[in-house]
């Protein structure tokens, strides 16, 4: 049993560790990994076994009576569900419960008189009664004049297995204290709803990580609170608040708090510290209250972006109106042609190419566009930047039938497609595992028709750089086995794609007929 578990976890760890990030910003990655090669180290199974033992722990204070002067009381158990929600499902008032059983993230729940103290990176939980007979340990910290009954540490970021990035995340101290007098412990702001604490540090800045490590876990952790929740953010960034404001306002009725920038003492009746995460870019409904799924998450996106999109549509209608009025004065057939064209286009399926330049670009993208148009698609090329407004991107993808892109962080945009539509991921040499794990499998769970287009060596720019029989071309797995730095240097950073148009066209034709059929179906539904 233990052996089986160890094997599984080892694989889980190893895989995720090796594919740290599919970042488009190399310097960013370097800044995290340094030149120490730390990111490339594989964990030894022995170390892992030890980690497993220490991870599967949950500290609970069951009753004041069973406490000794020892401030920590931990229960270890093996064989619990790695990603389950069960461990801290009911937490008594005045206690902290930490669920450290998941490989991906820790989460602690504090109930009662919760107060922030950002100067000491702490969150305190004060207890009223039954605890005053404890002898307090002397301490120099001004806020430690009361005895600490329980002390937990946690880094609220959901890549727990990746030490290199976790080292960059601020750690929080969670302390239960006996309350002799509340005079010293004023509340500057009294909140009446639960707080959720998390970090937007780490790999935030890369779309895949923003959704996978941040937004989706935030949804998983907080949606059941029906917006009655305050987000308290470590490593707070204004740009992140701006970029995700539409989504945040669907999850919370209150403004977010910058934990280290806001020195006031915020008081809460409950705190959830850390985020739950299920799997890559997904929501496992069997672990959610009310059986929520990734489709419910998409519904939330739709609601989040609708006000902005409606605004854009109104603006455009206003402009069109002006144009018509003008042309009514000086008649021209332009507008008529425009409307006819629009009508025809809405019948044709729409294909979006999520384009990269630099590494993993499609060198013959122009020809791909032309071919797709010849087949009958309306084609739009999107070049998402870090600063692109997500609502605008959502609008394009929500009205598309097909999305095509080369494996990379921007594939995260599949979450903006309508379930039932098609996603073609072009898979460069050496990226099979990551492409399927991070985007292919999640896209299928999401309800897309997914096609992984694995390129042939001849379609890779590496074909001219290496001998025909070089393992780089004919056995990428063996290159990947040598370590992450090889994968990154050879396959991710230096490879571009020249699609074999004949080969690609076969897929595209099938997709075209599928899309036409889908469109007919939905028109039929509408007319009923
Ligand atoms: C929990 O404890 C706090 C202070 O310790 C108290 O103010 C609050 O009323 C308690 N809540 C419940 C539900 O008992
Ligand atoms: C919480 O409720 C109290 C009492 O009803 C009120 O005074 C306070 O303003 C509320 N706090 C917030 C942040 O709404
Ligand atoms: C969802 O979680 C449960 C419990 O951990 C697990 O058994 C199941 O396989 C998961 N489902 C998917 C689709 O991953
Ligand atoms: C969630 O799904 C399970 C199994 O499909 C079902 O038994 C249960 O009633 C559902 N719960 C809710 C709240 O819909
Ligand atoms: C997305 O598309 C659907 C139907 O195609 C539409 O009903 C919905 O309003 C669109 N969402 C947004 C936010 O524009
Ligand atoms: C990619 O395109 C952007 C904007 O079009 C440009 O600023 C950038 O320099 C390009 N990068 C490369 C590597 O060509």
Please characterize this protein's 3D structure.
- Strands 3, 4, 5, 6, 7, 8, 9, 10, 11 and 12 form a ten-stranded mixed beta sheet that branches.
- Helix content is 39%, strand content 17%.
- Strand 13, helix 9 and strand 14 form a beta-alpha-beta unit.
- It is of the alpha/beta class and 528 residues long.
- It is built from 16 helices and 17 strands.
- The structure holds 2-acetamido-2-deoxy-beta-D-glucopyranose (NAG) (6 copies).
- One 2-acetamido-2-deoxy-beta-D-glucopyranose binds next to strand 4.
- Residues 327-424 form the Glycosyltransferase 61 catalytic domain.
- The chain crosses the membrane at residues 47-67.
- One of its GO terms (molecular function) is pentosyltransferase activity.
- This is EGF domain-specific O-linked N-acetylglucosamine transferase-like.
